[in-house]
């Protein structure tokens, strides 16, 4: 099931495209009703692997994971981006998402989080003329 309206879904995909325009990094969003793990970070790591996100050239993929019925979420990044961002980046991004999610504004929260991740990716992994979009920009659902 999809918790987003078509407009909300388009907004999230557009946020991904805008964020990726200025970077070689890759951002994905994965949404499912229930988190099959007690720890949403562990589930996000599984999804990261299932989506092949570890295959990016610079190991700079970022996954936004949301289990909307269980009200769980996580943000995980590959080794390349994790080594570069400030130590509080992931936690502060989760806090930004949480502030929107508490009011039920999932699409808004994801869009803001994606913009924030895009800014970091742009700083550490700027777009190069030979970049290719290595991963799909659409939202994956389970």
TrEMBL record:
Any Pfam family the entry gives: TPM_phosphatase
Alphabetized InterPro entries for the sequence: TPM_dom
Superkingdom of this protein's organism: Bacteria
Domain TPM residue range list: 4-119
Protein name: TPM domain-containing protein
Organism expressing this protein natively: Spirosoma telluris
Lineage per the UniProt record: Bacteria, Pseudomonadati, Bacteroidota, Cytophagia, Cytophagales
């Amino acid at each position: 099931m999809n918790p987003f309206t078509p407009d909300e879904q388009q907004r999230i995909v557009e946020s991904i495209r805008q964020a990726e325009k200025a970077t070689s990094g890759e951002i994905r969003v994965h949404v499912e009703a229930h988190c099959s793990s007690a720890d949403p970070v562990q589930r996000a790591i599984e999804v990261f692997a299932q989506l092949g996100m570890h295959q990016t050239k610079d190991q700079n993929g970022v996954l936004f994971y949301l289990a909307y019925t269980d009200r769980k979420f996580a943000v995980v990044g590959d080794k390349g981006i994790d080594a570069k961002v400030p130590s509080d980046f992931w936690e502060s991004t989760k806090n930004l998402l949480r502030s929107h999610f508490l009011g039920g504004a999932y699409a808004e929260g994801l869009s803001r989080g994606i913009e924030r991740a895009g800014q970091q990716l742009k700083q550490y992994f700027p777009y190069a003329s030979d970049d290719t979009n290595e991963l799909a920009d659409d939202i994956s659902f389970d």
